[in-house]
Design a protein that fits this description.
252 residues, alpha/beta, seven-stranded mixed β-sheet, 7 strands, 12% strand, HET, Heterokaryon incompatibility domain-containing protein
Length: 252
């Protein structure tokens, strides 16, 4: 697992039991996210300390704000951001990361959900989470369910709620039971069809990702085959069937 040092912004790999306490970011990808290679090049530039907060791509600023929040508000030294902590040019690393994603979110000390399309509210009104795109994306489903501690932040990086205290509101938006959000029940206690239903309003950019983003929800690992299209979802169903008799899957 590759993490960002929130003081120096260096990337460092950790393995097995040597992984330190870390925060993890959940966000909707924009058009100008920063890759692993770009982050390394930026970090190795001698002028980064002077110009580090004046970068062209919004993805840099988002990550730097997240690191500052992690260090200042949560007193955590390490952070994980999917855009640059995974080298997506390596198919092996990408496969391992996607199969490990649910576990990584589960083990995080805190998950910061950045709702870029939610403002800070005006005239005393609190931010309205209900129409955020974050609740419609495939990958953010497991990022909401897996961590025990999820804090929501507005576009201005102001906290606007958390998963436990706002469980009723979030359940109304997502159809995920309050028991799952407050972790009094695990996802594995719910029928297969119910778990599939949580993804019915969610979309992904790549067709295959609608299956891959659900792997952790079903406790499944499988190879990634980008280019297979909707066959990925069929493979996911087959893997689910192999793991037990749950006739509710027939509704899907």
């Amino acid at each position: 697992m590759r993490l960002i040092n929130t003081n120096t912004f260096e990337l460092k790999e950790f393995f097995n039991y040597g992984i330190p306490r870390y925060s993890i970011l959940s966000h909707c990808w924009g058009s100008e996210e920063v890759t692993y290679q770009e982050w390394q090049a930026w970090r190795s530039d001698p002028s980064w300390k002077e110009n580090g907060w004046k970068t062209a791509k919004p993805g840099y600023q988002k990550t730097l704000n997240f690191c500052q929040l992690t260090r200042g508000a949560y007193l955590i030294e390490w952070a994980w951001v999917d855009t640059m902590c995974i080298d997506k040019t390596s198919s092996t690393e990408l496969t391992e990361a996607i199969n490990s994603m649910f576990a990584w979110y589960t083990k995080a000390a805190v998950c910061v959900a950045f709702l870029e399309d939610v403002g800070d509210g005006q005239g005393g009104a609190g931010p309205d989470l209900r129409n955020s795109r974050w609740f419609t994306r495939g990958w953010t489903l497991q990022e909401l369910i897996a961590p025990s501690h999820v804090d929501f932040y507005t576009s201005g990086w102001h906290e606007c709620g958390n998963k436990r205290d706002d469980a009723q509101l979030i359940s109304g938006i997502t159809s995920i039971p309050v028991e799952v959000l407050q972790q009094s029940k695990t996802v594995l206690e719910f029928p297969v069809a119910t778990r599939f239903s949580w993804a019915r309003i969610r979309t992904t950019t790549r067709v295959e990702d609608i299956a891959y983003c659900l792997l952790g929800i079903f406790g499944i690992e499988m190879p990634l085959l980008y280019g297979e299209g909707i066959k990925a979802f069929r493979r996911l169903q087959e893997e689910v069937i192999k793991r037990g008799v749950d006739h509710s899957i027939l509704t899907w």
